[in-house]
Fold these 4 entries.
Entry 1:
Amino acid sequence: MTANWQKVIIPPTASIREALEVIDKEALRVAVVVLGCDTLVGVVTDGDIRRGILKGIELSAPVSTIMNKEPTSANVALSSCELMAIMQDCKILSLPLVDDEGKLVGLKTLYDTLEVEKRQNPVFIMAGGFGTRLRPLTDNCPKPMLKVGGKPMLETLINNFKSHGFYKFYISTHYLPEVIENYFGDGSALGIEITYVYEKEPLGTGGALSLLPKSLPKEPLIMINGDILTNVDFGKVLDFHVKQLSDATMCVRDYEIKVPFGVIEGEGHEITDIVEKPTYRYFVNAGIYVISNNIIKSLPSNEHLDMPTLFEQKQRLGHKVLKFPIHEYWLDVGRHDDFNKAQTDIHELGI
């Protein structure tokens, strides 16, 4: 039984945002919704939250609007093998445990008991930027090699990928490439494989894809900026891409803009509506992508191309391009304020 299962219990009146905080903080990938002290009424996974976000449900809404109201549960008296069989049959990662009276008494998870499956998919990390906004910290150090929590951000990112079974890495370098190469070498010390791709001139995120070797594995590739601190489950992103038969998938984040004034709507001099202090929500690019091999092969060599332009081009040509909303912790460490925030946040992320 999971030792800290009580920490993922929330009431049905809790907001979706509160459920999200519980899921991210406790790393059990589920929040258990309980009425009173011990009556199980639902469970919430990150998938439930993701689907709610796509439907436009506000994070301030009660968790009861998105929870699974008929969760699978099992009697606590069952053996571990029996509980594991239930989870495998139902394809779930966690199982609430109840006593003979149906009261919640625990939680069993499958995630930590299963061996992490090795994935052949390549991971391409962009680590060639100058980090101009972080000077003087980057005067003699590439931005992804700046230490957060006593370890280079790039190493933390690689370790997160490793925890999800990825071991084939390609790292794009340009500014001070020797600092990165001397630190990681061929990756064998970390139990991974690293191939370096040197950009003589910055080609943009999309253009750098054309520099990858022809021996690149045919499986879809995950691409990410090397200055991102996140605990995203990259396996889930990849599984979505494959299941949806996507050619290119962009991870996006829900971004809110709150206008502190009344917004006046109308045409010409006529006022048709007054919206008091509205909140507008948008999906923004999170700098994480899954790209299928056919897209990579189609790119011209050594031509500058940014990733949004690549997505626009392929969409016009009829390729399937999708968005995948992420709700997990995410921070683009581009400024000094971000760097200072990362130093605090890293201790709570468990990565």
Note: The first helix runs from residue 16 to 26.
Entry 2:
Amino acid sequence: MPFASVQKVADADFPTRWGHFRILGFEGLTLPGDPSRKAVESAVALVMGDIHAAPPLVRIHSQCLTGDVFHSLRCDCHDQLHLALGKITEEGSGILLYEQQEGRGIGLMAKLRAYELQDQGLDTIEANEQLGFEADCRHFELPAEILKYLKVPAVRLMTNNPEKIAAMEAGGVKVVERVSAAIPSEPTFARYLETKRERMGHLIV
């Protein structure tokens, strides 16, 4: 669903262990009519270097408290986040878009309940569905709107998820190259990766 408006609400200096970024905060006001969406959605953009000289490397990363903060080995989120920040720094320019979509959009508490069900033998999709959710409740329209706000018409998208590519194209941002976000598997999340590949169509080799 398109947004009624997207606005930048913050723009600050942001030095990190990987390199020097600007951190930008964005809010998107959704159009009425979709009860599954929050009225206001937010995302953060970490921007490094000249993003207009050529299609920049872009990573759309969904919030994962357990992985990003606690370095959980139940998923590949932490390693993908660090891979993207490292690649952007290595190239000297790029954008990391960080969306507040914990647990593929179901929220933190529901995600922890899904963990419990996975401990009982369900895979990540089965757990979400048993809780009454879709396999993936995320939306990627806001990142496309942010890129257009930043006057970035084309990107090299770092992802294994074809839905992100389709969302960018549908949102008016051309994906000129897909850059793999695959990371080495761990025994603790091998089944998780297999489920994403076999049941969700992620491009994991």
Note: The helical segments are 65-69, 77-91, 102-105, 108-119, 124-130, 141-149, 162-170, 190-200.
Entry 3:
Amino acid sequence: MHFTRNKRILILLHLMVWAALFFTPYFLAGGQVELSPVAMNTWVPLGLYAVIFYLNYLYLINAFLFKKKNTVFILINLVLIGLLAFLNYELKEMYLEHILAKNKTIERPPHEGLFIYLNSITFVVPLVFALAFKTIEKWKKDETRTQEAEKIKLESELQYLRYQLQPHFFFNSLNNIYSLVDIAPDQAKETIHSLSKLMRYLLYETATEYVPLQKEIDFLKTYIELMKLRFSSNVIVNYSFPTVSGDVRIAPLLIITLIENAFKHGISSTELSRIDFKISVEEETIKFVSVNNYYPKDATDQSGSGIGLLNLDKRLQLIYGNDHKLKIDVQNDLFISKLNIPVR
């Protein structure tokens, strides 16, 4: 429907332009000019220009020029321009002979050969216009096709990354439950219930490009509480998350990667560990900060696949481009992650 409407508008524009070209000379003369000279000097050449324009616009450019058959395209147009210029000249000659026969006092214009040559050059103008219009149309179509291909590629990559994240997240959560089965069976049952809510969110509510920030915050709270059950009192976890309106939206499952990373690298089995998370919404920007003790893994520790931060960086680039800011730094044995993304 959209394509048909655009095509009708284009046809209407063409008709309006040609109508203006055909009738402007007559109207400029205030309608006082005889129709015969107007037809001979304006309408006949314009009609021949239209033949050149539309033969190229509708067929020749696509059939030859855009298929790299440049020599054939040039030869056809040289022959076409030559024939139409000759036809225009012959028609004017017939008209001039008719005028001379009627009025013996009118003489032939001087430098007739030069006039014919210059008149022939004007037949190149519609060819140039046809080339310009067709090239612009092709560029727009190619641009639209490229954008559609990029969009499909973007959606495919995001879907792949989302599928990659979900098993990774599920695997970590099952480890948490496994650690509770023997020492706290009741808590393990509650944790399974919490995990079911998390997985429901993952499976059914994160398929869209953006989700309400409040839903994402509720998901993060549940996950953090689930993680806290796994650790002893030597691990202190604090979070400060606001209550926000449903108008504030965010791409799902971005912040969870940084939270998982904080738990993975910020917990020691022998020392006191502290992790702090904070989310705020300031001036159309969602800000997340996590600060935790830094206990780097040694070469023998195979926990974690390392895909988390790489996955996050890819998704941020695909979704937000240069509109986001991710900074990860280690200062005084503290691992600090800062993420700023625009409100959607």
Note: Residues 124-181 form the longest helix (58 residues).
Entry 4:
Amino acid sequence: MAFASGLIEARRFTETRTPRARAFSRAAAKTLCAVAACAAAIGAPASAQAAETGKVGLGLPLLTSPFWQSYNNYLGTYAKQMGVDVLAPVNSNNDPAQQITDMNNMINLGAKGIVVGPIDSAAISRALESAAQKNVKVVAVDVAPTQGAVAMVVRADNRAYGEKACKYIGEHVKSGKVVQIMGDLASVNGRDRSEAFRACLKSYPNLSLLEIPAGWKGDVAASALDSLLTANPDVKGIYMQAGGVYLSPTLQTLRRKQLLFPVGDPKHIVIVSNDGIPQEYEAIRKGEIDATVSQPADLYAKYGLYYIKAALEGKTFKPGKTDHDSTIIQLQPGILEDQLPAPLVTKQNVDDKNLWGNTIK
């Protein structure tokens, strides 16, 4: 604003003075322009940069999970580093209808871009359509929409989650019943993990599958698992699709049923989770669970903001390898997904300092 007002005053001065004065004023105006250009070259303040692209809204699916709590904390850190001017994050409390309302509210508050973790892959299309009509860019994090325009989907390969969990259990359980505690099947994440685990388990004919559709709700998972274990006390393995919501209820249920034995005990139930939160790492160290797939909360926040900033600057991307150890694929015409790495964490690498779950203080 200071540079702009200076330029206006210089022009006014030029118009009202003598020829000699006007020449001097033109030189002054050029000097102001040069200073402004110099400031732009060395990097204007974050607020000035943000003013050029507009504010960014942040939509959280829920905050009851340690995973999303960590993601939310990372957003503030990376927004500051990148100079992204963000609105206060909004929590939709796992309600797809509320999420649509929240996104519309962010647009009404002046958001030119939105980074959102879709709750329902299909329902989010309504909000995406509304955003597109108002030329608001959207980046989807963690969950891909089934339709609708997004600048990028930032996500790990969720089919690989199910496959990694299945292979670990298949290698450590020779025969018996295996339980899959599923996420919300209205979410592409829940479907991908469930389908991949189910398909992979067919490679282990001595294992039989039992499933619990829990919709990312810990209380639902606990109640269903309690009933299932009453009828099937000989369960040998459990795959939890989200440690952030299922870890504590599952361990509490096993403990109450007197079925929680440490790794190495012949009665131990092999347990693999998803998320990579500190609580899972502690459970691995204690021998309560065997492994988890580290879903990169830090990278979701970092690259969610990276891609929304790029979209607001008019940048586009193509399928292929990235410079941050991931691959951009085409999900469907017009929708790209940056598939970020998600390693399997076991007793052998649980203390790796590069894992985001070990960086939280």
Note: The longest strand covers residues 176-182.
